[in-house]
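User: Let's play a game. I give you a shape written as tokens, and you guess the letters that built it. Ready? Here's round one.
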């Protein structure tokens, strides 16, 4: 099992360690609810060094990446990023990623820990098949990645790094000199809050983590991260996204350009034109209960789907989840139920914008 450079610091901070995607990671420190509240109300920091990080360099970099994703990467300006998905020939999702353009012919991709080797093999396969000149440099184990999130995150981080980050737009990025090293700072995250994700050499990341905690940031684990991302209606690979999931049914049609020169383009365009047979929706419990992945979703007493994710939301003080529902039921306000330990708990279909929509 792999460990990040911060492993000993997690233990010192009281982190309870668990296995996740081949890494030994903290699932919680003081407690999941407290950590969620810290991020929603103040600021917190996550070690996300298990996430994969690879650089693509060379004259064919843009053309190569463009054939792997449905988004129009030519529209990415220097030092900005694009959330998108890698697609296969069937129009399914190989992974969801963020691609940053650092400069002409140099891109940084952040992708999922569980898919690291699969994705690297995927890149190598298609680079060879398309005879493209692009160097792929996996820097996952040489760097750390921290996510500093919450309404106070930008102001606090600016003070620590000695750089004004407030002017950096959402999905914008900058380099900051800190601790005799160059830190990559992108205004991105996985919580639904403002904040930055930082990539730095491993030893710099250790000092940065210590500095953030000394400045009052709450250390947060994977448990809080999962609750926060479900509250924000964000996808998790292996749950809302798989190699058999079309991005249109996943509610990611906004990522799909009109280009036809990427893997699975014709399949995806067909679904876009005809409409998907199912749609990813939110589900809100109307009574007490904690929904979990795999729990059946019932319409008029009959199972029609199962939750892809489910949590108790301390922010909303109710159980929430996500599920792919047949298109005819995929409308906010539709009554439903979630079967929890044999009991049908009343619920309602909603959008995935749990924090900003009552419907």
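Assistant: Ready! My guess for every position:
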């Amino acid at each position: 099992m792999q460990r990040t450079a911060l492993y000993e610091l997690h233990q010192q901070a009281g982190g309870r360690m668990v296995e996740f995607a081949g890494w030994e990671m903290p699932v919680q420190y003081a407690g999941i609810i407290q950590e969620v509240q810290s991020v929603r109300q103040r600021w917190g920091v996550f070690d996300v060094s298990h996430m994969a990080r690879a650089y693509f360099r060379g004259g064919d970099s843009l053309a190569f990446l463009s054939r792997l994703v449905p988004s129009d990467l030519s529209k990415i300006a220097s030092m900005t990023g694009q959330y998108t998905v890698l697609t296969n020939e069937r129009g399914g999702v190989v992974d969801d990623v963020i691609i940053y353009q650092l400069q002409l012919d140099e891109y940084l991709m952040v992708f999922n820990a569980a898919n690291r080797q699969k994705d690297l093999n995927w890149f190598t396969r298609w680079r060879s098949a398309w005879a493209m000149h692009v160097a792929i440099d996996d820097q996952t184990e040489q760097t750390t990645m921290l996510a500093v999130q919450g309404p106070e995150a930008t102001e606090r981080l600016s003070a620590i790094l000695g750089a004004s980050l407030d002017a950096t737009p959402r999905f914008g990025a900058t380099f900051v000199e800190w601790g005799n090293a160059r830190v990559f700072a992108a205004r991105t995250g996985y919580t639904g809050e403002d904040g930055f994700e930082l990539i730095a050499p491993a030893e710099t990341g250790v000092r940065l983590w210590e500095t953030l905690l000394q400045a009052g940031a709450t250390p947060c684990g994977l448990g809080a991260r999962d609750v926060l991302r479900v509250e924000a209606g964000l996808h998790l690979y292996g749950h809302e996204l798989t190699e058999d999931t079309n991005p249109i049914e996943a509610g990611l049609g906004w990522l799909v350009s009109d280009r036809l020169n990427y893997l699975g383009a014709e399949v995806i365009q067909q679904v876009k034109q005809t409409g998907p047979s199912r749609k990813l929706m939110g589900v809100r419990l109307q009574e007490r209960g904690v929904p979990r992945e795999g729990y059946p979703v019932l319409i008029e007493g009959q199972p029609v789907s199962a939750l892809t994710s489910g949590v108790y939301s301390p922010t909303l003080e109710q159980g929430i989840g996500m599920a792919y529902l047949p298109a005819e039921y995929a409308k906010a306000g539709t009554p439903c139920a979630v079967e929890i330990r044999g009991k049908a708990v009343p619920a309602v279909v909603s959008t995935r914008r749990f924090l900003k929509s009552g419907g």
